[in-house]
Specification:
Blueprint (H helix, E strand, L loop, with lengths): L2 H6 L1 H16 L7 H13 L3 H14 L4 H14 L3 H9 L7 H13 L3 H12 L7 H14 L3 H8 L8 H13 L3 H14 L4 H13 L3 H14 L4 H13 L3 H14 L5 H12 L3 H14 L7 H14 L3 H13 L5 H14 L3 H14 L4 H13 L3 H12 L10 H11 L2 H14 L1 H8 L12 H10 L2
Helix pairs in contact: 3-4, 3-5, 4-5, 5-6, 5-7, 6-7, 7-8, 7-9, 9-10, 9-11, 10-11, 11-12, 11-13, 12-13, 13-14, 13-15, 14-15, 15-16, 16-17, 17-18, 18-19, 19-20, 19-21, 20-21, 21-22, 21-23, 23-24, 24-25, 25-26, 25-27, 26-27
Organism: Hoylesella pleuritidis F0068
Keywords: TPR repeat
Protein name: Tetratricopeptide repeat protein
Length: 474
């Protein structure tokens, strides 16, 4: 039984009622530390953060050394407050160092610190001390931990140790791994089966929504997210999935409401502010975009994986506002950020230079990105898009035609830009071919590049015929 399911059970409702009635009446009620930790987690999921922390701190004082309260408190420090050092302080107070949850917490602290190999070695050492009867659960739990941190190969390696292939937990992980590896059809198939078996699992609906989104089934993804939100209105993953779906369909104002809701629910995470900023860019409200992107920058920790993206988006936005010095300052910041892609930043630098009319310097920057990346197709595509956005259509067409126009590439992105160039240059036959591929492979990109006048109610499967019909009428 998952925590979500347990919190809906009569058993938990009875415990919660006893606790809250005692609090109301000022009567001292004895509950064991596990029950108190469950109630604190329930409050946390309901968005009652202060109430949750106060209760768990009380439980720690009542039951010093008890695993459940200390481990939950440590996870708040680790995952909400981004403080692995404080999390470790709580972890070391746990008396029973053989508790599996203690081992998982220690592992998670290592993963937050990007100590992936150390985490794997630690778990392999633990394996020898674990009872045979607990090993199957251990394999699944460890695989889940690695999947949570996008270490998919390691998750798969641990999952393969399990013999419980028919269990729902095993199937869920198999679906998550398929999703991460780009096998969206398999992932959808697995999660469709799982939601049929348990339609009250928000986690299953969230993963199904992600699989559908990545398969460009945007409306279906939004519907799955709505099922998850109905199960738990405070499910931040479901809120984000729905916001992303609305954004993909061009419903920017409504998407903004959900990104704001995400920000209100998770004020210590930068995701909501960052996506609000990106949405304001789409609405051409650039000063508001800067405000939210700067908020995201302030919230993001120095080691945040999103920081380079925030810096790049700020650079792009300042460039659009004509503030070239600010834009270049943010490119320099991005170059110093952990995990920065220097080739992407060379493309962005070229974009800004070309926007200022410094075509030769821009060309040098694009060339540097392409040569330094060893002619990486993704970098070539970024350069082509940048050149297109600066209105050098024929030059952009040359890049895109070379990258996409000859034979089958297997790519899903870029065809909308090739179609746009062909349309501008009067290459009608090539326009239709590129547009058809774009609509089949990446309707989200089609709407972003060519879909200014596409009705928001139009299903993505109808984009091609709509655009052809309206092109012919122009």
């Amino acid at each position: 039984m998952t925590n979500d399911e347990y919190f809906k059970s009569q058993e938990f409702k009875d415990i919660l009622h006893v606790y809250e009635k005692g609090k109301q009446e000022g009567v001292s009620i004895y509950l064991d530390p596990n029950d108190l930790a469950d109630i604190a987690e329930y409050y946390h999921l309901q968005g009652q953060i202060d109430k949750s922390v106060a209760l768990i701190d009380e439980a720690i004082n009542l039951f010093p050394g008890s695993s459940a309260p200390l481990i939950f408190r440590a996870r708040i420090e680790l995952l909400v407050n981004n403080d692995p050092f404080k999390a470790e302080e709580f972890a070391e107070q746990v008396e029973d160092k053989t508790d599996l949850e203690y081992h998982y917490l220690k592992t998670e602290i290592m993963l937050v610190r990007h100590q992936d190999r150390e985490a794997d070695r630690y778990l392999l050492d633990c394996l020898g001390t674990i009872d045979e009867s607990d090993r199957e659960d251990f394999y699944i739990d460890v695989a889940t931990l690695f999947a949570d941190y996008d270490l998919i190969d390691k998750a798969h390696e641990w999952l393969m140790r399990s013999q419980l292939q028919d269990s729902d937990n095993y199937q869920e992980l198999t679906g998550r791994i398929a999703l991460a590896k780009g096998d969206y059809m398999q992932s959808q198939h697995i999660f469709n089966d799982l939601v049929e078996k348990n339609p009250y699992s928000g986690s299953y609906w969230n993963h199904l929504a992600s699989s559908q989104y990545m398969s460009n089934e945007i409306r279906e993804s939004i519907t799955s997210s709505e099922f998850s939100i109905a199960i738990n209105p405070n499910d931040d993953e479901a809120i984000l999935n729905k916001a992303n779906g609305l954004f993909a369909l061009g419903n920017y104002e409504e998407a903004l409401l959900y990104y704001k809701r995400l920000t209100d629910m998770c004020p210590k995470e930068e995701t909501g502010e960052m996506f609000q900023g990106i949405t304001f860019i789409k609405l051409n409200r650039l000063k508001e975009a800067v405000e939210h992107l700067k908020q995201a920058e302030e919230i993001a920790g120095r080691d945040s994986e999103t920081l380079p993206d925030i810096y790049q988006t700020l650079a792009y936005t300042f460039s659009s506002l004509g503030e070239s010095q600010q834009a270049m300052a943010y490119i320099k910041k991005a170059e110093q950020a952990l995990g920065a892609n220097l080739n992407e930043l060379s493309v962005l630098r070229g974009h800004l230079l070309m926007g200022q009319g410094e075509v030769e310097r821009a060309r040098e920057s694009y060339q540097k990105a392409i040569y330094d990346s060893d002619f990486d197709p993704d970098i070539i595509l970024r350069a082509a898009i940048s050149i297109y956005e600066n209105n050098y259509i024929e030059l952009a067409y040359g890049f895109l035609h070379t990258l996409l126009g000859i034979g089958e590439t297997g790519r899903t992105d870029g065809y909308s830009y090739l179609a746009a160039c062909c349309k501008e240059l009067g290459k009608d036959s090539e326009y239709k071919k590129a547009l058809k591929k774009a609509c089949e492979r990446n309707p989200v990109e089609v709407r972003a590049v060519l879909g200014e006048n596409i009705p928001s109610t139009l299903d993505p499967s109808e984009y091609y015929h709509y655009l052809i019909e309206h092109t012919d009428k122009q």
